[in-house]
Design a protein that fits this description.
The protein is 35% helix and 17% strand. The protein is α/β, with parallel strands linked by helices. An eight-stranded parallel beta barrel has the order 1-2-5-6-7-8-9-12. Strands 3-4 form a two-stranded antiparallel ribbon. The protein has a two-stranded antiparallel sheet with strand order 10-11.
């Protein structure tokens, strides 16, 4: 499983923990994160209900109720197969518990954005569309779809019509299959545009598409941005998207990157970020939902223990 694509994620409120229902407002007031991205890789691709039960216990203990599966497949196919059902198992366990909201990412596209397919993977395959649709349609915990290819402010500002059509095609296909589904994207910024110009760019890209959530990647874990940078870009983006009813969330990177783009040309490697760096990246004074990247892989053990204590009922 490749951890980085480009310079972005792939290398999740007054705080809104537990807002998916079934979680108490007391927990909401004390928890730093609302949810986490999850990367299915290694043994996790074979996880069943018991494995997910343990994982959801841990996530609930620190107040998390939203899970964004970064990818549900790769160029070799879906992570669901005849002998393994990690996504079904997660959704079944979340359904049984209540209070969890699961977003299904699409397939990992290794060449993006240098190679842009005609249709967002894996939606060119009707069987894949049917499988994704069935997974979401039949499970109450499925909130909708995370459109995994990441949008940046260097590649796309001169190609907005192409990107708009690419996203529109994906939304149309999936909405026809699951009319109730919500849709999310997670762009990142490089400061190539001013904060106001970046907000206008994202608004233009998603105009009229019915994108429900834009999860802005903070980027602090890669070292390419500071918390002050994130604030400067997040606030005008949220204000701009609010006009059209689109929510803006913040992706808080819980790692400190050691190698890989944008640091160097090597393979991605990272370690848990320093707790003080994570606290700064949370921008705790802002009223925004926060998704960690990623709690299972990178949350500092000391922070995990502290959050378990603060979020305990």
């Amino acid at each position: 499983m490749v951890l980085t694509i480009g310079f972005g994620l792939s290398g999740v409120l007054a705080l809104a923990c537990g807002s998916a229902g079934g979680q108490s407002s007391t927990i909401t007031a004390r928890c730093p994160l609302d949810g986490t991205f999850v990367q299915l890789r290694g043994d996790q691709i074979a996880w069943g209900r018991a494995d997910w039960s343990r994982a959801l216990d841990e996530l609930h203990a620190i107040g998390l109720s939203t899970i964004v599966l970064q990818h549900t497949g790769d160029p070799y196919g879906s992570y669901e197969s005849y002998d393994r059902h990690p996504i079904t198992s997660l959704l079944e366990e979340a359904d049984a518990r209540g209070g969890f909201s699961i977003w299904l990412g699409l397939a990992h596209a290794p060449g993006w954005p240098q190679t842009v397919p005609d249709r967002m993977p894996p939606l060119a395959d009707p069987r894949a569309v049917e499988q994704l649709g069935r997974l979401c349609e039949t499970h109450a915990s499925c909130a909708g779809f995370y459109l995994s290819p990441e949008i940046d402010d260097v590649t796309w500002p001169s190609r907005v019509p192409q990107l708009h059509a690419f996203l529109a095609d994906a939304v149309s296909i999936l909405r026809a299959r699951v009319p109730r589904a919500r849709f999310a994207i997670a762009p990142y910024f490089t400061r190539a545009l001013t904060p106001d110009a970046h907000a206008a760019f994202i608004a233009e890209v998603i105009e009229g598409l019915g994108i429900d959530v834009v999860m802005l990647q903070g980027g602090t874990g890669t070292g390419r941005t500071s918390p002050d940078d994130v604030r400067r870009y997040l606030v005008p983006l949220a204000e701009r998207l609010r006009r059209s009813g689109t929510e803006t969330w913040l992706v808080v990177e819980l790692f400190a990157q050691r190698s890989g783009p944008p640091i160097d040309d090597g393979a991605f490697s990272a370690q848990p970020a320093d707790p003080d760096a994570v606290r700064a990246a949370l921008l705790s004074d802002l009223d925004v939902r926060r998704i960690g990247y990623t709690v299972p892989d990178y949350l500092d053990p000391g922070l995990r223990a502290a959050w378990r204590s603060s979020c305990a009922p």
